């Protein structure tokens, strides 16, 4: 089968171009939003798997929450439900009795790696869209 030909009068060319650009823009917007959702869920899953063990329900507490959605933007925040200990686990901390060398909790990095993987995944997905 041959390709369908659309003939446009020169007077209607500008309007046709604008319509095509709007359709392209809408498709890209929808696909980028899908990429953001997929990336947020991927980061959440990675954090649930790589969070330090022995911290109660901390690993299970990760969530991807819709923060804001407009016609042109989508913001999703990945956060721990037990946010109070996320920074302490990621960076380590001194115990109440003081000191960092004796009686301190060493860092257990897990957030930074998931964030970097998320940035890489989102970049790859958006490049595919474009």
Keywords:
rod-shaped, two-stranded antiparallel sheet, alpha+beta, 15% strand, 4 strands, 130 residues, 51% helix
User: How big a fraction of the residues is strand?
Assistant: 5-15%
How far from one another are the termini? 28 Å
Summarize model confidence as the mean pLDDT: 89
- For the secondary structure, the number of strands is 4
Strands of the biggest beta sheet: in what spatial order? 1-2
Count of all domains: 1
Helix content: 40-55%
Order of helices and strands: HEEHEEH
Structural write-up:
By secondary structure, the chain is of the alpha+beta class. The protein has one domain. Helices cover 51% and strands 15% of the residues. The chain starts with 12 loop residues before the first helix and ends with a helix. The relative contact order is 0.14.
